[in-house]
Amino acid sequence: MLVLGALGGMAYAAIPALLKTRFVGANEILTSLMLVYVAQLGLDWLARGSLARSGRPQFPRQPPF
């Protein structure tokens, strides 16, 4: 999981790098800050959608400790 997490992070960090090399006026700081919101919405969609338990409320819950 650690290796796959590192590979996923490198792939996600490559997006601002590719935008910087492709477009002259692209700022990698601004594009990476905007991608934070894209990642947050994507993870929220996964947690409340396809990874949520079926037949339960669509809110991620922890079992009681």
The biggest beta sheet reads: none
Shape: elongated
Strand tally: 0
- The SSE string, one letter per element, is HH
How many angstroms does the end-to-end distance come to? 25 Å
Helix content: 55-70%
The tally of helices reads 2
Residues in β-strands, percent: under 5%
Computed Rg: 16 Å
Low-confidence stretches: none
Estimated structural class = mainly alpha
Average pLDDT score: 85
Structure characterization notes:
With 65 residues, the chain is mostly helical. It is 65% helix and 0% strand. The protein contains two helices and no strands. The longest helix has 21 residues. It is elongated, with a radius of gyration of 16 Å. The relative contact order is 0.09. The mean pLDDT is 85.
Write a short abstract of this structure:
This protein is mainly alpha-helical and 65 residues long.
Name its key features.
elongated, mainly alpha, 65 residues
Record the SSE blueprint.
Layout: H1 2-22, H2 28-48
